[in-house]
């Protein structure tokens, strides 16, 4: 009887040992963190753990530069072309050519030292359209009623054309250099009228360029040149 109890006790102890060994092995395999030795296992990373920071220079997923990026053919990244365009100012057309006259030009009268007894008329286009200087200036000094004749040999081959800002020229022979002129007198005012395409009539408004304070001396030999494109052509007569 005593031997039977001893056998049962040994069998029960052996069974308990097997069960404990099985439980220890299961704990190591199901991730409960208990080793066979009974020490805690190292924590493993799960899907709920915080993700590692992105590598230096890399934009986080879901963000990006405020400027769209485009991939070039060389593989480098460059900013995409902007879709906005600047509105350039529209150019205002200059308009059709017109006749040069007092309202679209500025006239300056300047006595010359050489040739002596000469005056240079300079007409500058102050308008926005090309203008034509037809014929020759119709000048009146002081209270004169008639205009002096033109030097026919000074007629240019083409009509003088002034773009905005450009100038045309004519010279005035004020008096005879040898003193042969008659009715010489000093004048203090000048009126310059402009001719139309026909060359016979005056058009537009006249110009009134100022003269030197002491005035200029004129006589009956007074004459003018045709309008010229260059100053050199004007003063050679």
Structure description:
The protein has 2 helices and 13 strands. It has 237 residues and is α+β, with helices and mostly antiparallel strands. The chain has a domain at 98-235. Strands 3, 6, 7, 10 and 11 form a 5-stranded mixed sheet that branches. The N and C termini lie far apart (164 Å). The model is unreliable at 1-9 and 13-93 (pLDDT under 50).
Core attributes:
single chain; 237 residues; alpha+beta; 5-stranded mixed sheet; 4-stranded antiparallel sheet; 2 helices; 13 strands; 27% strand; globular; disordered N terminus
What is the mean pLDDT? 74
- Strand % is 25-35%
User: Largest sheet at a glance?
Assistant: 5 strands, mixed
Ranges where pLDDT stays below 50 over 5 or more residues in a row are 1-9, 13-93
Assign an overall shape. globular
Distance between the termini: 164 Å
Number of helices: 2
- CA-based gyration radius: 54 Å
């Amino acid at each position: 009887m005593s031997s039977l109890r001893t056998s049962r006790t040994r069998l029960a102890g052996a069974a308990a040992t097997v069960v404990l060994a099985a439980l220890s092995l299961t704990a190591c395999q199901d991730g409960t963190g208990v080793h066979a030795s009974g020490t805690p296992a190292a924590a493993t990373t799960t899907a709920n753990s915080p993700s590692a920071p992105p590598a230096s220079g890399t934009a986080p997923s879901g963000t990006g530069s405020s400027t769209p990026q485009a991939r070039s053919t060389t593989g480098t990244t460059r900013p995409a072309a902007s879709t906005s365009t600047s509105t350039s100012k529209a150019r205002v057309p200059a308009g059709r050519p017109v006749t040069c006259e007092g309202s679209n030009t500025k006239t300056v009268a300047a006595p010359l030292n050489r040739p002596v007894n000469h005056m240079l008329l300079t007409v500058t286009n102050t308008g926005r359209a090309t203008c034509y200087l037809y014929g020759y200036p119709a000048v009146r000094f002081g209270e004169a009623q008639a205009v002096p004749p033109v030097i026919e040999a000074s007629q240019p081959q083409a009509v003088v054309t002034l773009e905005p800002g450009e100038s045309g020229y004519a010279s005035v022979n004020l008096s005879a250099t040898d003193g042969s002129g008659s009715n010489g007198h000093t004048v203090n005012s000048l009126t310059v009228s402009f001719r139309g395409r026909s060359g016979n009539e005056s058009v537009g408004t006249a110009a009134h360029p100022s003269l030197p304070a002491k005035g200029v001396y004129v006589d009956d030999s007074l004459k003018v040149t045709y309008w010229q494109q260059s100053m050199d052509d004007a003063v050679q007569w």
